[in-house]
Amino acid sequence: MARGIPKDPELAVQEPDRRSPGTMEDKRNIQIIEWEHLDKKKFYVLGVAMTMMIRVSVYPFTLIRTRLQVQKGKSLYHGTFDAFVKILRADGVTGLYRGFLVNTFTLVSGQCYVTTYELTRKFVSDYSQSNTVKSLVAGGAASLVAQSITVPIDVVSQHLMMQRKGEKMGRFQVHGNLEGQGIIAFGQTKDIIRQILRADGLRGFYRGYVASLLTYIPNSAVWWPFYHFYAEQLSYLCPQECPHIVFQAISGPLAAATASILTNPMDVIRTRVQVEGKSSIILTFRQLMAEEGPWGLMKGLSARIISATPSTIVIVVGYESLKKLSLRPELVDSRHW
């Protein structure tokens, strides 16, 4: 589902303790729809549609974040808003969606993430009833599976994001005129794939794989426990008549912001490894520190949080609604909203 919740969680919402598989359970007065209560076919179809809508809304900020992280110092853009305005002026709206078509293939990894997360939680529940333990292990495992699918797609889409009129930003430059080519540009995608193959071979599509794992596994593992923590605290603070969806929607972005702050340094390094073709995480880190100091590790953080906030709210609200719509027919009457 979206890049602010695990890459990744672009993916799910409230997944509490598993108990009896045949009964609905309450946790702090929040009724929970468990995995075994869902009509899986309906859940996957509606889930893909919802994820696609979220991607469309946050993709421009993903592109901006990538460019901010790759640029040297402030050579091109002075911040998120400045980048947004300059890209819009230079390339129009389609310039904010370069590489989008390729990026949509990550919808597959999103569904794999949800499935892995759910099945891992169920497996871990046989050994531990701690929600924190289940969240950490399941979140990390889900991210590992999702990233194995996502990294090649990310590598291609990031190089497409770097295409702009004028100065070259990434390692590769597409041939021909970029005028009017934004969202749908099959020729550009083919050109980038050929250049990656020519320069690095098949390994080039997994450049930055280790850096991605070091970014998104902790991000996913951290997001879940913080999400449950914030939701629990807000449930105590909110009036009893306050709809649960309200503090669930608030706790999602809070968890995403917390995870973003903790993992942004590795995200900057990951982006540079993938886009600039570097082979060493340690050398990339040293070069970044030498050129820009500690603040260089926080580049693109505001764009990351901005893109994560609306997507996380939509995911939390949408995912809860999705689960209600996907509830098995025979269980609908047993559910009280």
UniProtKB/TrEMBL annotation:
<dbReference type="InterPro" id="IPR023395">
    <property type="entry name" value="MCP_dom_sf"/>
</dbReference>
<keyword id="KW-0677">Repeat</keyword>
<keyword id="KW-1133">Transmembrane helix</keyword>
<dbReference type="GO" id="GO:0015658">
    <property type="term" value="F:branched-chain amino acid transmembrane transporter activity"/>
</dbReference>
<feature type="repeat" description="Solcar">
    <location>
        <begin position="41"/>
        <end position="123"/>
    </location>
</feature>
<dbReference type="GO" id="GO:0031966">
    <property type="term" value="C:mitochondrial membrane"/>
</dbReference>
<keyword id="KW-0472">Membrane</keyword>
<dbReference type="InterPro" id="IPR042164">
    <property type="entry name" value="SLC25A44"/>
</dbReference>
<dbReference type="Pfam" id="PF00153">
    <property type="entry name" value="Mito_carr"/>
</dbReference>
<comment type="similarity">
    <text>Belongs to the mitochondrial carrier (TC 2.A.29) family.</text>
</comment>
<keyword id="KW-0496">Mitochondrion</keyword>
<dbReference type="GO" id="GO:0009083">
    <property type="term" value="P:branched-chain amino acid catabolic process"/>
</dbReference>
<keyword id="KW-0812">Transmembrane</keyword>
<protein>
    <recommendedName>
        <fullName>Solute carrier family 25 member 44</fullName>
    </recommendedName>
</protein>
<dbReference type="InterPro" id="IPR018108">
    <property type="entry name" value="MCP_transmembrane"/>
</dbReference>
<keyword id="KW-0029">Amino-acid transport</keyword>
<feature type="repeat" description="Solcar">
    <location>
        <begin position="130"/>
        <end position="233"/>
    </location>
</feature>
<feature type="repeat" description="Solcar">
    <location>
        <begin position="243"/>
        <end position="325"/>
    </location>
</feature>
<dbReference type="GO" id="GO:0006865">
    <property type="term" value="P:amino acid transport"/>
</dbReference>
<dbReference type="InterPro" id="IPR002067">
    <property type="entry name" value="MCP"/>
</dbReference>
<keyword id="KW-0813">Transport</keyword>
<comment type="function">
    <text>Mitochondrial solute transporter which transports branched-chain amino acid (BCAA; valine, leucine and isoleucine) into mitochondria in brown adipose tissue (BAT). BAT is involved in BCAA catabolism and actively utilizes BCAA in the mitochondria for thermogenesis.</text>
</comment>
<feature type="region of interest" description="Disordered">
    <location>
        <begin position="1"/>
        <end position="24"/>
    </location>
</feature>
